[in-house]
Amino acid sequence: MTNSLLEIKNLRTCYKSLDGLVWAVDDVSFTIEPGETLGLVGESGCGKTTIIKSIMRLLPRGAFSSGEISLKGTNLLDLSIPEMRKVRWDKISIISQSAMNALDPVYKVGDQIGEAIRTHTTATKTDAWKRAEELFALVGIDKARLNEYPHQFSGGMRQRAIIAMALALNPDVIVADEPTTALDVVVQAQILKRIRDLQKKMNSSMIMVTHDISVVAETCQKVVVMYAGKVVESGSVKDVFENPYHPYTMGLKNAFPNIKGDKFDLISIPGYPPDLADPPKGCRFADRCPFASDICFVEQPASEEVKVGHMVACHHIDSIDEIREQAKKHDTWAKLDKELA
User: Fold this and answer.
1) Which tens digits make up the pLDDT trace of 175-210?
2) What are the backbone dihedrals phi and psi of residue 283, each rounded to the nearest 5 degrees, phi first?
3) Rounded distance, CA 103 to CA 112, Å?
């Protein structure tokens, strides 16, 4: 084990379905240092939320994980359910994707925050309420609104209330699962700025889960690019986004607008992710990759370090300069689109 705050090592998570076992996360590894923000990025269904549920031990009945999830040297997968309950909110907390669903509609918001505090500490009801007032001040909400119910809050306010709850016990790690989903761009910018400011103030580490690479570029130091349950590329945000080595990472960049530098037409990635109940034998991106060769369809690529801390799983790293140039062209992906049609 390293001295990292959180280390995920060879994590595999499986769901049981009518079609058999579905390995939604397959051999995923990454680390997070104190005060660091790591982005988990990829399209819907790539395994991002499953990783978070595995870390928090909130998987549905019948699902299971293997590997290691080490928080300060303790493997969370070895903990009993009561032991894990003590870790949640205290050592690691979550800002959920849907703030409305995360808050109980029949209890006042202040009571819900206070309950989280009192469950994990010896604080009195009065002390817990005072802490809730402090948290609301941190996230920019009038403390008087602690007496209101979730339906009386706007979407942005509900999200900030969830952030306040996540910060209640000064956790070592904060997990933000699509924290700005369904919010307009103005509120999204406010929420992201609030999260960054609070994280710096509390020196907490964070996992930012999103399908939006612009959010990762704005808020994170490191990034892990997921596809079909596997890590295809990881490293510093600067290295991965400025000099991507995996065609999927290049495809993600092509699909998002860039307000800086040269303008270009957005290019979508043709096709769909594979069925994880029956995953392909080789590289899972091969069917959608315009640079795939015979080996890509029969052999999974090993993860290689192309630069210190920059890992890539691709068979064609040696041809990276030519691939980068071709990946910028609309015709490169359009030809594949016609083949898949």
Assistant:
1) 988 887 666 777 778 878 878 888 888 888 999 998
2) -65, 130
3) 8
